[in-house]
Amino acid sequence: MMSATVSNRSSWSISTWLSVVSLTFGSFALISSELLPMAVLTPMAADLGVTEGAAGQAVTLTALLAGVAAPTVALIIGRLDRKLINLALCALVIASNIAVAFTSDYFVLLAARMLLGVAIGGFFALAGATVVRLVTMEDMGKGMSTVFMGLSAGLVVAPAIATLIGEAFGWRAAFMAAAGCGLLALLLQTVCLPSVPATSATSLSSLFGLLKRRPVRVGLVVGLLFFGGEVSGFTFMRPYLETSGGLDPTAIAAVLLTLGLASLAGSAIAGVFADRMLRDGFGATFLVLAIATIGLLTLSNAYIAILVFAAAWGIAIGAGPVMTQTWMGRAAPDQLEGVGGLFLAVIQFGVTMGAIAGGVAVDVVGTSAPLYVTATCATLAAILITTQQAPDAVSQTPAVASAAAE
């Protein structure tokens, strides 16, 4: 039985790989577009005649709409082919970025960013279900690992590239480049993604019914702790390294680059652990995050140690989303879209609460306080996971997965 399972995991056809990678480009386009205002905030605010704080709300509003859209999209799409839904979401990414690039009105910009929020919420709410239909439940971790590599890559390279484009050609050109990424994702999914017919529709009663399942509740709490704690520490990482580590901008850039590249590695390797030892790998992810954060807090004067712990931090935050999504999928294999919507809503709530908690902690205690929030959240998540039984994986080989493998 084990040898057969391992064999299945290593037997993805080229068409299956291409279909999953097309979703990877989708996640890259989405995260790149979401974070883009941060890279061009100053010139964008000046051109629109608003404060930088007001321009920054373009990111906040996008995140809030993503949280609302995630469960909503799952409820309203019914039995429509999920390929068509993904293509429509890519079209929203393109339309949003083009609208921002050409508008001179702040409120039009906010409306366009709301469209992007809908796309983000819809894509990640459906991602787990779509991946499982392509590769089966046994390979969900491997599939989500591949998809989330696009997210990690976007976090690493998109802000830097957007900054360079903005400096060379203006901030509007950066949004047109993001629209181009959305177009590429649209073309790849049109060609490579097979038809993904819906097996069922999500209802409001089934959505609330998910909360009665203990593994689902555990996954939601862990997701809240992970994303809230991560954002709390990461948002204020630079001020901490400046004040406690005494690092200059060049040294900090190297730390953040190390962290970002390590997150790519974390996303890449997480799939193996998620598929074969979900609970242990999940708990270890949070334990590594807690240890790395404590290391940064205690050895902030040793630059090599900072780089090492930043790498460990990056591996953990790259692996965390893959592990969490796989846990949620196996907790509700019969309601993958509904549980995906709930999960993303919790992520956005966690991100918001983490940013608020980090900001309050900095103002009240100092720049090291947000990292203590991260360490505490990661420790609590590790304890919670290790005291639970991993949800059972359900063996299934959907017709679409079989078709993709032929």
UniProtKB/TrEMBL annotation:
Q: Does the keyword Plastid apply?
A: no
Q: How does this protein sit in the membrane?
A: Multi-pass membrane protein
Ranges for the Major facilitator superfamily (MFS) profile domain?
Answer: 19-393
User: InterPro entries of this UniProt entry?
Assistant: MFS (IPR011701), MFS_dom (IPR020846), MFS_Efflux_Transporters (IPR050189), MFS_trans_sf (IPR036259)
List the transmembrane segments. 12-33, 53-77, 84-102, 114-135, 147-165, 171-196, 216-237, 249-274, 281-297, 303-324, 336-357, 369-387
Superkingdom of origin: Bacteria
Q: Which SUPFAM superfamilies match?
A: MFS general substrate transporter (SSF103473)
> Is the Transmembrane keyword given for this protein?
yes
What compartments host this protein? Answer: Cell membrane
Alphabetized, the UniProt keywords read:
Cell membrane, Membrane, Transmembrane, Transmembrane helix
* Any Pfam family hit: MFS_1
- Name the record gives this protein: MFS transporter
Please report the organism this UniProt entry assigns to the protein: Neorhizobium phenanthreniclasticum
